[in-house]
Amino acid sequence: MIVTMCVPGQVVWTDQFSTLLSYQDRRIIDDERLSIERPFTKDWNLHIRKVKHSDQGTYHCQLNTVPVKAKTVNLRVEVPAKIIEHLSTQDVTVQENDQVTLVCNVTGVPTPDVTWYRHVSGQRGVEKQKVGVNGEVLVIHNVTRYCGDIYECVAFNGVPPAVNHLIKVEVQFAPEIYLHNKRIGQDEGKETILECTVTAFPHAQAVWTRNGNEIRTLSQKYRLEIYDEDRHTITLSLRMFSIERHDFGTYTCIASNKLGEDSESMILYEYSAHIPTTTTTTPITTTTTTSLLSRNTDASVLRPPYLEPDTPNSIFPRVEGRGHNSKPINTYRPITYPDPRILQQSGEGGSNGKVLQSNMGSGGVSGVASLHCSSIFSVVILCACVLL
């Protein structure tokens, strides 16, 4: 760069330490970055190439006259921001409820501003979010599992380019188990699936147990499958083939890692034994309703699993796919069925069918109950009782 110029004569350049840099148009010191350039006769320009921060200071151009004439130039060198990697925080692993301190050590002239960002995983369309306040240190108090992400510090002082540093924060926590249903019903001879969702880091060892004994896949009776839901969550699936009477009972999902253990239990019960039986008496005939099907339907049709109390009157037919975050698999999805206590009758009335009506002949009370099932399975109950 060109620093300044002087008038004609015997001209010398010196630095802030009074070091002689040039005499006339000749360079004196052993620094090839410096040279004297004279675009015009009266110009004596000191040209410094590849300027360093150490070149900053005061320079003097002197003309050897009596008295000596001189001109002073102050050179200020701006330096782009730079992150000192070995003095900055690298990837870190902490336990839940701890405190974590992230450091981004930067240099530059002028002093760079440091801004912190968080790369939020699992949020589509969100590249990064600004967090905390500006500065070289970011402190996160009472860390939770939801704080685990990639953090980025960006340093800039107005001199291009800006620089950045990435820090991966992983939070360890004990397992937590979630059951979609606490009770599930099925008939003998049918197939069913029990599932539990486990969230933990480090990943937990998860098993299904029955009466305190771990269920293994050494026989053709069971099949265990593990599905990845996200980076810290798995689903442990227990598929049971040809259920027998002694298979009904309580099953427990247990998960553990070095930080702790969690367990949840669900009940598998015989579905047919839990179907309510309603007896209706009239002066002419008695009708017992126990079927989910119409009179024209074969009662031996495969009955899907029955869940309660979380999803009453629901079944889970097999479909392809799973949650939006996991690999495609064969699993279950709830579809609402009408109450099994309602008996459909063929006849006019459209696809909804007609509903059984009855009269109570004893006690001198006459009553009519009408149940109407719409195509979206909403139920309206109208009941009128008249004293005879």
From TrEMBL:
Q: Does the keyword Transport apply?
A: no
Q: What is one GO cellular-component annotation here?
A: neuron projection
* Annotated segments matching region Disordered: 312-337
- This protein is called what? Ig-like domain-containing protein
Question: Superkingdom of the source?
Answer: Eukaryota
Identify the SMART domains for this entry. Answer: IG, IGc2
Any idea where the Ig-like domain is? 80-164, 175-269
List keywords of the entry alphabetically.
Disulfide bond, Immunoglobulin domain, Repeat, Signal
